[in-house]
Amino acid sequence: MTGKTFVTLVRHGETIWNRELRLQGSQDIPLSEVGLAQAEAVAKRLQHEPCDVVYSSHLSRAHRTAEMVAGSIGVEHQVCRDLMERSYGELEGWTREQILAKFPDFWGPGKEFSVAGLETFEELAERAKSAILEIVAKHAGGNVLIVSHGGTINAFLHSISDGVYGSGVNKLGNTSVSRVVFQEDGAWSVEMVGCTTHLLEE
C-alpha cells in the first residue's frame, strides 16, 4: 500500500521559436530571455512545495527550466528522453500560419497526415503515458515534478482523461503548471490544468 502519487507537470519557458509561432518539435531551441525569467518565476512558485525529484526531457528548453526548478527546491534532476516534444518531421521550423495553410485541421487528436518523419498523435500519447507511468512506479506514493513540452503534456492529459482535458481542449502556456494524481487503484485524476498565475505576479 503506497498511497497516491502526486505529479506536477510544467511546460518549459518561452523560446524565440515560441514567440514566432514556429514549430519546434524535436529541434533543440534554447530558452529566450523571457523564457529564463518565466523559469525563474515558476521555480519560485514551486520551491516550497513537496517534491522528491524533478524529471525533464533532454531538450534544452525543458532541461534548463527543470534545472532551475530543481535547484530552487533542492532536489535531484533526472533526464527522461521519452518526455521530449512530438517529432513533426519535415514540418519542424514551419510557422503555425504555414502549417494551417497546408493542413487546416492539423492540431488535435485522431487526424492523420502524410508528412515525412511525423510522429502520430497516438504514438506521442502512448510514449508520454508510458514514460510518466514508469516515473510514477519509481516514486510510488511520493511527489514528482516533470518538466516537458506543450504537445507532450497535452497528449498525456488527453490519454488519461479520455479527451476531457489536453489536446484540442487546453492550450498550455509557457511554464504553465498542471497537476494530476495517480490513485492507488491505478486510475488518474486531473486536479489542475495550465495554471500560470506565477507569471501574473511579475
TrEMBL record:
InterPro entries: His_Pase_superF_clade-1 (IPR013078), His_PPase_superfam (IPR029033), PG/BPGM_mutase_AS (IPR001345), PGM_Phosphatase (IPR050275). PROSITE patterns: PG_MUTASE. SUPFAM superfamilies: Phosphoglycerate mutase-like. GO terms for cellular component: cytoplasm. Keywords: Glycolysis, Isomerase. The active site is at H12 (tele-phosphohistidine intermediate), E85 (proton donor/acceptor). This is Putative phosphoglycerate mutase. It comes from Tumebacillus permanentifrigoris. The lineage of its organism: Bacteria, Bacillati, Bacillota, Bacilli, Bacillales.
